[in-house]
Amino acid sequence: MKNVFKTLAVGLTALVLVSCGGTDSAELVGAWKADPSSLDLTLGDGLAAFRGAIEEQQSQMLSEASGESDKVTFEFKEDGKLVLSHEDEDETYSFDWSLEGDKLVIEGEVEGQKGKMALNVQSVSADKLTLALTAEDLIAQVKEQMPEAMGMVPGEFDIDAMAKGTSMSMSFNR
């Protein structure tokens, strides 16, 4: 259960959204629940060799998350805090959040590791929030915040080429 909770926490933190314009912070304030069935993963050509393994992992992760998603709440508070909680656990995760146009900036610490992610809100309505992530944006943020992590990638992999064209989106419901 705890692993699914952490997966959902990391998943939200990892979602980078693609849109332009501006989102009103009041639209995000409140409690949201992930809808794992809405996950849409598009693999770019750079990941073609790994397609089978990735799709198998996706299927397994969705199966695990589907049973737990109703128990996990993502609550955006007016004071700029994002609190992730699981109804069967006492532990919660707290992050700072802010909006810069349609970019949702989340900062905080998970298991002693500080981080910051800039996310874009793809769409938001009274009852549905959709977030999307491009692998290129994710890699750029990792390079900026944790350049040492890029040194761990084996030399035969061109991480930028692998990321090109890969994206995912997921919705959250009130």
**Elements, N to C (H/E):** HHEHEEEEEEHHHE
Low-pLDDT ranges? 1-8, 13-21
Derived from helix and strand composition plus strand pairing, the structural class reads alpha+beta
| Envelope shape | globular
Gyration radius, in Å: 16 Å
Would you mind describing this structure in some detail?
This protein has 174 residues and is an alpha+beta fold. It is built from six helices and eight strands; from the N terminus they run H-H-E-H-E-E-E-E-E-E-H-H-H-E. Helix content is 32%, strand content 39%. Helix 1 (2-14) crosses helix 3. The longest helix has 18 residues, at 51-68. The two termini are 22 Å apart.
Give a short summary of the structure.
By secondary structure, this protein is an alpha+beta fold. Helix content is 32%, strand content 39%.
Task: Provide key terms for this protein.
single chain, 174 residues, alpha+beta, 8-stranded antiparallel beta barrel, 6 helices, 8 strands, 39% strand
Please give the structural blueprint:
Elements: H1 2-14, H2 25-28, E1 30-42, H3 51-68, E2 72-76, E3 81-86, E4 92-100, E5 103-110, E6 113-124, E7 128-134, H4 135-145, H5 147-150, H6 159-163, E8 167-173
Antiparallel strand pairs: 1-2, 1-8, 2-3, 3-4, 4-5, 5-6, 6-7, 7-8
Helix pairs in contact: 1-3
